[in-house]
Amino acid sequence: ETGVTQTPRHLVMGMTNKKSLKCEQHLGHNAMYWYKQSAKKPLELMFVYNFKEQTENNSVPSRFSPECPNSSHLFLHLHTLQPEDSALYLCASSQESEGQIYGYTFGSGTRLTVV
Amino acid sequence: QKEVEQNSGPLSVPEGAIASLNCTYSDRGSQSFFWYRQYSGKSPELIMFIYSNGDKEDGRFTAQLNKASQYVSLLIRDSQPSDSATYLCAASGGSYIPTFGRGTSLIVHP
Fold first, then answer.
1. pLDDT tens, residue by residue, B20-39
2. For range B92-97, the mean pLDDT
3. Which residues of A100-109 are buried (b: 16+ CB within 10 A; e: fewer)?
4. What is the reported pLDDT for B2?
5. A97 to chain B: nearest residue by CA?
6. CB contact under 8 A, B4 and A42
7. Are the CB atoms for B19 and B73 separated by under 8 Å?
8. Which of A58, A105, A81 is nearest to A11 (CA)?
9. What is the side-by-side order of every strand in the sheet holding A73-79?
């Protein structure tokens, strides 16, 4: 496996369900991110993990809960979501050095539909 | 509030022409600039990054940066139908986390 792998590719869940998104990066990067992409809106940063520690939580509702067990894996736990949470959820990784990055590598994304 | 502005398009160009995609940013402290290409139903892919004023060329792609005008552009020479996609501009400054624009849709017609 190379790059950034995300599973599942598609997810349909009810508002009372609990599910998790998984991301794994094989690039040796030291930072991982969750982004939300909705139609006609810029990419929205949700969470940042740098060296496994969460460094940013961009005012995301508590129904989204991240977990980063090591520098290669990142999860996004979902519970009691709302229909407006339907979107493409993208995982990304980068190598951060002295406050500089050289661009993201994105996973293929999870298309989430909340019914 | 940091903002990156892009014309949503679509920008339509004939095959073989030069496509010019533009982006402005509000944060004067921005130091690094990125262009990503996103095909419909796919995730963004980094195609260019630029840090210094002037031009940076990579194959058919040229990124241009003018920090005084807070303006970044991407030129695609000899445009091909396979270049049809949405192009995202991003800028990062003191925090290395970039701010993304909404993207410009490019259509290259045969």
1. 999 999 999 899 999 999 99
2. 78
3. ebebbbbbbb
4. 79
5. B96
6. yes
7. no
8. A81
9. A4-7, A18-25, A73-79, A64-70
